[in-house]
Structure formats: C-alpha cells, structure tokens
Amino acid sequence: MPSHQADGPRAELSHHEWAAVDAVRSTGESDHDGRRLLAQAAENLRIASLDPGPVPVDVIAEDDVTFVFLAPAPMGGMPGHTLVATRRHVETIFDLTGAEGTALGLAVVAAARAVRAALGPAGVLIQQNNGVAACQTVPHIHFHVIPKVPGPFPPAQPPELMPYEERAKLAERLSRHWPLVE
Length: 182
What we know:
The protein is globular. The longest helix is centred in the middle third of the chain and has 22 residues, at 98-119. It has helices at residues 15-27, 32-50, 98-119, 164-176; strands spanning 59-62, 66-70, 82-86, 123-127, 142-148. The protein is an alpha+beta fold. It has a five-stranded antiparallel β-sheet. Strand 1 (59-62) and strand 2 (66-70) form a beta hairpin. The chain contains four helices and five strands. It starts with 14 loop residues before the first helix and ends in a 6-residue tail after the last helix. 37% of the residues lie in helices and 14% in strands. Helix 3 (98-119) crosses helix 4.
C-alpha cells in the first residue's frame, strides 16, 4: 500500500482505513464497520492536516483553513474529481464559522477554475452533502468538484480507483492551474 506521503512521516492511515475510504468514496455504500473505519480515517486525516510537515503528494492546494486534494475515483467519467475540505474538523455546513464558509467558497471556485483550465471538461459538478439522510458518507465537511462528461450521475457502474501515482501527477498538474480568486 502506498504511504500517501511525499517526503516524511505524518499521521498515516492503516491499510484497512484507506480501503474503507476508497470503498465508500467509489460506491457510496457503507456498513457499520465501514463507517467506523471511515470515521477513524477522517480523524487521522484531520490530525495529519494539522502537521506542518510534508504534504501528501495528491494535494492540489492548501492554506490555513482549507485542504484541496484529489478523490481516488473519477465519479464524473474523467479524472480530476477534487475534494475541498476544512482543516478543522467540522461535520456539516451548519457547523462552519463565517470565515471557514468564506474560505471554502473561495477554494471551491478556485478548484473549479483549475479543473476547467487543466482538463477542459464538458461541465463541472459541485456537490456537498449534509447528514446521512443527504448521503453524507464522510463525517467531515467537504465539497466535491467533479469534472463531468455527458452522461448520468452518479455513474451506473462504480468508477475504477485511479492509481495513487497517477493522482499525484494529476494533482501537480491541477496545482499549476490553481487560480487566485479575488
């Protein structure tokens, strides 16, 4: 299993935690054990995001409030599915501070612009879910910025996971297109 790190130690997820994250992100389905592992993985990611050490190589951009990185599976029919999250653990949009909401909004706009500039998709889908009834599978606020090809959403078949090395190269490409939002 790849370390998901660039150059040094940081809080890491176990093989089982990464498997739970990838399974839930790619299918949207979860059982009780999967949710427990996913919650632990989310907490480990939160702790890792506080560490000022090396950045995981699939991170596109980050600042003091937000963290922008690639999802493991391209839900829109093409690579580039990007996640925009807060560094502070916040479960839903209702728990955000005003400053966090503003920072997330700016980061979502910047991510959409970077995806469009780097990949030229037919469209870009922005999605954010709050609570289990709204299909929130990860108990941490995050926005999906999904480059879209024409066709149904979500896809009829779960997309294949993108190999980590390919995600790292794509994250670097997207980061070169990270725009300043005024």
